[in-house]
């Protein structure tokens, strides 16, 4: 068991996102599963990226997250408390917290300890207009 105070620190920080490893190589010797508690600060978005051959699952605890996905970020999905989000391998996506004052809290699980993130250039003019309206 990994207690709240025993969570591992984030090894690859993203501005506005804090990841604390729960089940991981550093906390319990896990080999093929990483699972952690993630906080996304208000008015924060990730860059466009995918996780290579890794598959992810997300469970929203608190707040509302918007996910943009597709080669041109042409699709959107809004998730709130109690919702699960599946992110298949190689799917280009952006995670966003659109709230100006409430953090998003979520549990993230991935089938790898690697934390693979492949940043992708996407034409963002139209994406920015859609995001902040």
Structure description:
This protein has two helices and eleven strands. It has helices at residues 25-28, 125-131, and strands at 17-23, 34-40, 44-45, 49-50, 56-62, 65-69, 75-79, 84-87, 93-97, 104-110, 118-119. The strands form three sheets. Strands 1-2-10-5-8 form a five-stranded antiparallel sheet. It is globular. The model has no long low-confidence stretch (mean pLDDT 89).
What sort of overall outline do the alpha carbons produce when their principal axes are compared?
globular
CATH superfamily: Jelly Rolls
Quantity of strands, as a count: 11
CATH top level? Mainly Beta
Number of domains: 1
SSE ordering = EHEEEEEEEEEEH
Question: Concise description?
Answer:
The chain is mainly β and 133 residues long. Helix content is 8%, strand content 40%. The model has no long low-confidence stretch (mean pLDDT 89).
Features:
133 residues; mainly beta; Jelly Rolls; five-stranded antiparallel β-sheet; four-stranded antiparallel β-sheet; 11 strands; 40% strand
Which secondary structure elements does this structure contain, and how are they paired or packed?
Blueprint: E1 17-23, H1 25-28, E2 34-40, E3 44-45, E4 49-50, E5 56-62, E6 65-69, E7 75-79, E8 84-87, E9 93-97, E10 104-110, E11 118-119, H2 125-131
Antiparallel strand pairs: 1-2, 2-10, 3-9, 4-11, 5-8, 5-10, 6-7, 6-9
């Amino acid at each position: 068991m990994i207690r709240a105070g025993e969570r591992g620190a984030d090894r690859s920080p993203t501005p506005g996102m804090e990841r604390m490893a729960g089940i991981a190589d550093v906390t319990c010797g896990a080999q093929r599963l990483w699972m952690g508690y993630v906080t996304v600060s208000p008015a924060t978005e990730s860059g466009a990226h995918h996780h290579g051959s890794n598959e992810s699952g997300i469970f929203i605890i608190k707040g509302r997250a918007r996910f943009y996905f597709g080669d041109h970020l042409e699709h959107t999905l809004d998730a709130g408390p109690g919702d699960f989000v599946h992110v298949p391998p190689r799917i280009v996506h952006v995670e966003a917290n659109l709230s100006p004052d409430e953090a998003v809290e979520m549990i993230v699980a991935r089938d790898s300890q690697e934390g693979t993130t492949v940043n992708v250039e996407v034409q963002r003019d139209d994406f920015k207009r859609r995001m902040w309206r």
